[in-house]
Amino acid sequence: MYGRRASQLLKEIDSSEAGQLAPFNTDVFDQVIRECSEHNSQFQSLIRKMVEQNLDIETTRNEDHYGAAIHHLSLLRNKRCLMAYMYNRAEVILSFRWKVGPVLPHDIQEKLHFSEKEYFKNHSAAIKSYISEMDIDLTVDMVPPKDPYIQVRVLEDIGEVSLGDHSVSLTKNSLHFLRRTDAEQFISQGLMEEFLE
Amino acid sequence: MAKFPYSSRTRIHGRLPRTRARLLAESLLLPSPDSDANYYDIDDILTEDEPISVVFQVTANGVGLLDPGAESNCVEKGAKVDLPFWLAHGLLTLEQAVSINPPPCFTQRTWKEIQADAACVDLRVLCPYFYELGCKIVPFRYKEVLSKSHSSSMMTMPKFVPRFTKEESRVFESARESMAAFKKWRAGGVRLQKASILGRKRKTKLHDGQPTP
Fold this sequence. Notes:
The complex is a heterodimer of chains A (197) and B (213). Chain A has helices spanning 4-15, 26-52, 63-99, 106-109, 114-134, 180-188, and strands at 149-154, 159-163, 166-170, 175-179, 192-194. With 197 residues, chain A is of the alpha+beta class. In chain B, helix 7 packs parallel to helix 8. The longest helix of chain B is centred in the last third of the chain and has 22 residues, at 166-187. In chain B, strands 4-1-5 form a three-stranded antiparallel sheet, covered by helices on one side. Chain B has a domain at 41-101: Methane Monooxygenase Hydroxylase, Chain G, domain 1 (Up-down Bundle). The radius of gyration of chain B is 23 Å and the shape is elongated. At the A-B interface, helix 1, helix 2, helix 3, helix 4 and helix 6 of A face helix 2, strand 2 and helix 3 of B.
């Protein structure tokens, strides 16, 4: 109570590395929500006590008022913690779209709450429609390019992929000379790496 | 339903970039717990969790859990209780219900120790959010932290690092990272990289035996 449980959620975010996500802590999250109900019911009963004694709620400053104020402050605190938890996780999820791509690997998806998965899906859809209107792929060239073509080594078997006007067979450990924009999405998924002499 | 007289907070002019320095500056100018710009900021929220010793100037009903020594479900006037900063601040400014004693990390003794040799004072033990909470001793240790972090290499960890507060750790780490990035750029390494989130050991098969695409 009084915000102690809510801090646990934030400490969890604080202790994880930047850009990484821990699994959504549904247990603690629900506990905090239950505590909010508890604070609220205590608050209501203190206010009701004052009303029954025919005291003016807005101006009276008695023990019940101060107790109610403490419960109210605790509610605001819990709310802040819950919202900050969701907000900071949402920021990390947004960054996934740009770093990894529109489809998340299975082990990341396991860590997301249902609403977070929805959020990611809608965000990806919004980016996709924006990109198609602009007719430029915004997710490539995240690092300023020096050369339109780079040499890559394939790390895992991908198979036949059609890039532009020809198709390439991407077998493991083969070297290719590809256009940067095509190679970038494979590199960010870990399927290829840039090959330096 | 009672209307509580919570007035809106004044804001700092303009929109400064979301940097550590700006957070520190804001806490120097406006030590208010609900500043809009910091609402979602984890460090700000955790800073306000730090315990502060208060003396209740009034009695409060229905909150006996706050005071471990309370016999009934209330906190009596005159009780000395440790409250988290957010609660102490709210009760002080909005209700005048408590009086605050400054936490032990801000005594004359600490100040003298820091003046003697800043790097040797173990701030984390005193208070991990020393700066954000106290905002008095900033210029002193900052310069030293910055210069040491730039000069130390990747491998060596100076012996005072475990003593850093959170703020200093971040300054230290970001200076270290920028030095490492600079060296990497000089050496001309690969520029495109696998997304760091995928760097962990991952399952290579889905549960039905198919490999992940």
